[in-house]
């Protein structure tokens, strides 16, 4: 397979993972900067026209994987491919961010949930959405319902 | 960085890239199968509850990258990070598929745009959408408008 290389690094307010908001209904509205390496800056041409981007990045502080694990906000274990766990066979993270502006090789974005210094693997334009009414969200929806009932 | 390994392979109707529908307003509704390797099957636990999945995969038949290139449906060049070009610094593809059903280690899905035999790097649950009314789609929207004017 290919040999991954960073195309840049994330500048984020989060210095360690305990600071990253987690749990049901968590809103990720932290601002950060995607600092693309100069040698890849040309690849950002025309990116300003997109409101949202996919960021693929490396969970570089995760050193093994587990196929079954419990998310922080649900005591029940789920398969790694049904969660956003950092402990994945290929430690690749995916985040949708809102593009606030570009300054040469720096993209100012909202919605970062990565640690400061995280290596970026790829950036892609967010071109279309699945309509919310078509989404089913399995165990996540069930955990939200359980929590809502407990809070009644 | 990490060393990527396949967690499975795509079974797709497309044997070469000329068969994959491309262009503006292309609908990807081809059905295919994500065949996860037995050793990773436990990681699929509870995935059935999700209607849509992200699939991360390797452009394994792409052997170099270009920072600026023209998509098949627009004569104007754009930066690689503003397109879905296969010729990326890290040759990772991202596809949203609809999960039709699971049969042990096989996920039957709709919406494949990968070639048959493509190595899968990761599968993640699709948990939320950016509302369509919040999306700006840059050069893609402009190209669609130009095409619509030409067809008037």
From TrEMBL, chains A, B:
<keyword id="KW-0489">Methyltransferase</keyword>
<dbReference type="InterPro" id="IPR023368">
    <property type="entry name" value="UPF0066_cons_site"/>
</dbReference>
<comment type="similarity">
    <text>Belongs to the tRNA methyltransferase O family.</text>
</comment>
<keyword id="KW-0949">S-adenosyl-L-methionine</keyword>
<dbReference type="InterPro" id="IPR036413">
    <property type="entry name" value="YaeB-like_sf"/>
</dbReference>
<dbReference type="GO" id="GO:0032259">
    <property type="term" value="P:methylation"/>
</dbReference>
<dbReference type="InterPro" id="IPR023370">
    <property type="entry name" value="TrmO-like_N"/>
</dbReference>
<protein>
    <submittedName>
        <fullName>tRNA (N6-threonylcarbamoyladenosine(37)-N6)-methyltransferase TrmO</fullName>
    </submittedName>
</protein>
<dbReference type="InterPro" id="IPR036414">
    <property type="entry name" value="YaeB_N_sf"/>
</dbReference>
<feature type="domain" description="TsaA-like">
    <location>
        <begin position="4"/>
        <end position="135"/>
    </location>
</feature>
<keyword id="KW-0808">Transferase</keyword>
<dbReference type="Pfam" id="PF01980">
    <property type="entry name" value="TrmO_N"/>
</dbReference>
<dbReference type="InterPro" id="IPR040372">
    <property type="entry name" value="YaeB-like"/>
</dbReference>
<dbReference type="GO" id="GO:0008168">
    <property type="term" value="F:methyltransferase activity"/>
</dbReference>
């Amino acid at each position: 397979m290919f040999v991954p290389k960073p195309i840049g690094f994330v500048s984020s307010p989060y210095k360690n993972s305990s600071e990253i908001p987690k749990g049901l209904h968590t809103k990720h509205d932290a601002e950060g900067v995607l600092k693309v390496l100069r040698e890849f800056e040309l690849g950002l041409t025309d990116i300003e026209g997109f409101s949202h981007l996919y960021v693929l990045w490396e969970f570089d502080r995760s050193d093994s994987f587990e196929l079954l694990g419990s998310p922080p906000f649900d005591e029940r274990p789920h398969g790694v491919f049904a969660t956003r766990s950092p402990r994945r066979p290929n430690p690749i993270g995916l985040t949708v961010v809102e593009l606030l502006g570009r300054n040469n090789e720096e993209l100012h974005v909202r919605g970062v949930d990565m640690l400061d210094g995280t290596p970026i693997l790829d950036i892609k334009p967010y071109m279309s959405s699945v309509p919310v009414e078509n989404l089913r969200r399995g165990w996540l929806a069930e955990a939200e319902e359980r929590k809502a009932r407990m809070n009644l």
